[in-house]
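INFO batch 0412 | record 1 of 1 | parsing
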Amino acid sequence: MRHAMALLTVAAAAACSALPDAGSGVVQLQVFKPDSLFLYPGSSLTLRAIALNLNGDSVAATVLWRTPDTALVTVDATSGLVTSRSDTGGTARVQASVGTLLSDIISIRLRRDTTTVAGLRGRP
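INFO prediction complete | emitting tokens
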């Protein structure tokens, strides 16, 4: 039984050493999103993220933002400010990074205009 426990301890230590590390001990990005992930033409929202170490403590690291959907939105690489460039509907993807470590993709829905369907109720 002790031999099995020793093997499990060694395996756990080896697994931890295989965690991604973007430098400075960063192993995870915690992303803070606004309540609404919708943008109207010309509107903006700000995304924020912090880098965390293996213990879950925040680490001083530069978080950069990017999007492959540059026809739909612009993203300020350092501030996380996302601005709609398009008056067409769709979904833009944005992602945070520290070194080679990437956050999950954040999907932001783009609305075509600011009119609502509520004004059309009761019409044939």
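INFO post-check: The helical segments are 2-17.
INFO record closed
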